Every structure is written in structure tokens, then in C-alpha cells.
Amino acid sequence: MSSSNHPEEDIDELLAADDAAEEIENEAEDIAMDSDAEDDQEEVVLHNDSIAYFDLPQDSLFAIAQHPVHPSLIAVGGSAGQEDDAPGAGWLFDTSPAGSRPVLPASYASDLASAEAPKTTTQLDSLFELQGHTDSINTLCWTYPHGEYLVSSGLDGRMKVWRIDVRSGAADGLQASLVGEAQEVEEINWILPCPSQAHPNTVALGASDGSAWVYTIDASDASNPLQIVQSYFLHTGPCTAGTWTPDGLLLVTVSEDSSLYAWDVWGEAAARNIVNDNGMTAMSLTGEDQRFEVEGGLYSIATDPKGTFVAVGGAGGAVKIVSLPRLSAQPSNQQSRGKVTVSDATSGGQILASLHTQGDSVESLAVTLSSTSPPTVLLAAGSVDGSIVVYDATRRFAVRRHISGAHEEQSVVKLEFIKNTWLLTSCGMDGVVRRWDLRSGGATGTTAAGAADRGLVKEWRGHRGDGEGGGVLGFVQGQTGERIVTAGDDGVALVFEA
Q1: pTM, to two decimals
Q2: Where do the WD repeat units fall (predicted)?
Q3: Do the beta carbons of residue 257 and residue 235 sit within 8 Å?
């Protein structure tokens, strides 16, 4: 046998019979097999109501803008990666390839097999990529009135202007080129187009150093396509939000220092001798006035469609309503549709109301003038506490509705009314877009069962949600609200159909 060939000393190293019979106890628990772990995992159900998606971005989308003439043309911007020094990135895409889904249920279809097939969404392609930003793009806008230029800006302090020539409104008819760029500040917080017909292709921006700038864009002037119209430096904290009055004659801005200024950009207030001593503002309020002070700063702003008042929102749920100077030719005592009564409607600057219904910072404001009879002016405020409060401006800003659980416990990011209607669209960090009909009374419940009583018409899901990393950071809905396009913190833009 082969065992007879082993040396004798090798036999001594073999395991003894008593040792072989010994049982070794293992007090540790058995480690579950992979199959057991999979059985215990909670099933995640993904809900997607979108009809189309754009998923080329690699990281968060912070900004979205819709062409004023061709509403299917959308620009989005954000970060190209998760690193702190990741460059900014932006894209143009066209939503028109997204087909509408049938309104009637599947049982009404002539072809039941196709009707019962799973709903599919359309993948949208990039038409043009916005390049050259060294940090995240956090704000975008198209110029008025024709959307001739697209302006991108962000955390690198650069404002880049792109000429977008949409020959036919279709994807194959688009030509884009860089017009120029400017960098006067370290970071840009917001940028807005001027609505004045007399001053086309003009934009205003607010910066982290508190300054505000106005530019007019003219690509025909090759030596100076971005012309500085005005620059202002009265804010002592970051300029957090701004808005033009509906006629485009005044630029109104707010800051973390709790100041409010209405800038006389075109000299219309000076021509009427209602400019302040500084020669730059038609109206101003600061925290030195204790009636206006908001400890923690101001972060949101909106004007009513008639240019009668401006609403500003800030820390701790504070909302201040201030009368605006009236620079139009309309007499101040003329009765107009939906007019809010102001005793001194020429100079402005009167604090009409100090509201404090919500418990956390007001990050978004929206105003509508309904086309109903009698007309109603509504002000909606969205808060970090997840609530929406609607005030009736024609009744001394009385609370019309308090939706305390509008977006669960996640921050309300943006509010926007469909023009001249009672319909309000909102989005939040819960990843959901919702639409509310504010014509009925005001229930305040927070449960899903009471959503219809609170005016909830419809909601759209598809973004990841759950706060940071999955919320909806912006949306556009055109003039009619028939289609909503979102910008997600999850790096996806979705198209929803109302």
C-alpha cells in the first residue's frame, strides 16, 4: 500500500482519535445566506406619472426655463458631477416628441390589447449643451419678448449668453451659439428677464455680495454684446430674490439683511419726482424700521399683476406686503379690476400688512388676479415647513386657506398660478408636483383622505423624493398649465400632462 512509504515521524503529526471526536461549539448566530436576505428585503414600488423624461444630466438640476414663444423648448441647468468643484452643465431639449396619453379609460379603446399594454414614456434627446461654467448653473432665463437669447449663470459668478435661433419651432430648426459672457461677482443667485416692450432683451441679476445688475443684450454689437445698464450696491447682505414690476419700469429686490429696494432702472420715477434721496430707488425699506424688520432675512418676492403691491417672505414664516409706486399713466384714483386700495398709490412704500401664519422660512410666493366676477387677488406662500397659505388680498390679506401638509414635512420649493385662474401648482422636496383649486373653502387637514377637501386637483410623481437628493427644484407650466416640465434634484427632468 502507498501508506507504507511514509516516514514514521509523519504518523505522529496526525490528529489523535480523541481530538477527532471532540465537538466544537459555535455560539455565534448562523450567517444568513444571500437568498434569505433577499427574501427579507422590502419591495420598493416606483411610481412614474410622466409622459417623457430627459436623463442625460449626471447630477442635480437646479434651474429650468421655458421659451416664451415655443413652449416645448426647455432649458435646464445644474451640476456635472457630485464633486465640490464639479463644473456646471446645461442642456436644451424639445418636449414636443412626447405623445399625449388617452383621456378615456382602456375599456373605451377599440383595440383592448394595445390599450391595456404598459404605459411607456418617451426619452428626450439633447439639442444643445451649455458649456463653459466652472461651477453649478443655478439660474436660467430666456429674454423677452421673443426668446432670442438664453442666459445662464450660477455659482461661478459668470453670466453666459447664448443666441438661440428657432427657425421653425422644431428640433431640426434650432441653431445655437455663444454671444458672450460677463463676470462681475463671485456668485449669482438669480436672473430675470425684463417684461418692458420698450427694453427688449434686458435681464437683471442678484449676487451673493448684495449687488444687483441690469444688462441689455445686443449680439449685433460684436465689441460689447452685453451692455451694463445699471449696477446697485445698497444691500449689505446677499441679494436673495428679485422681480420686475409688470410694466418693467421698476426692479424690486430683497436681501438677507432684511432690506427691500425698488430700483428706478429707466429713470421713470425720477421724471415724476418720486425718487429717494439716493437718486436710485423709487421706494426702500430696511430692518431699521422695526415694523419691517425680519430677523434672519428675506428670501422670496412677488408682485401682483396690476403692480399695486409687492409681497416679500422670509425667515420664521414672515410675509410683508408693501405698496408700490405707480409710474404708469393711469390716475391713482381710477377704479380698476381687482385693485387693492392704497391711500398713497403714487409714492408707495406703505406697509399694508405683516403676516405670520407659517412656522418656518417662506421660500416661494405667487400672486394671481382671477378672471372671475368679482375679480379676486390671491397671494400664495410656500414654506420650508411644507405648508402653503393662501391670502385674499382683496379682503385685507385674510387667510383664505392654510394647507399645512401640502408637501408632507418637506420644503415647498416653488409656487405658480396658472395665469388669471384659481389654479395653483406647487412642487417640493418630497419629489411631488401638485395642483390646487382654491375656489372652495379652506380646510386645513393634513391627511391624504382630506386632500380633496383642501382643493387638491391632481398630483404627479416620478422623482425620487425624500428630501435632499430627490426633490423637485423647479418647474415650468406655460400659460395654460397643460404640460408641466420639472427639474429634479435626482438629475432628471420629467414631462407631465395635466
Answers
A1: 0.84
A2: 130-165, 232-265, 405-446
A3: yes
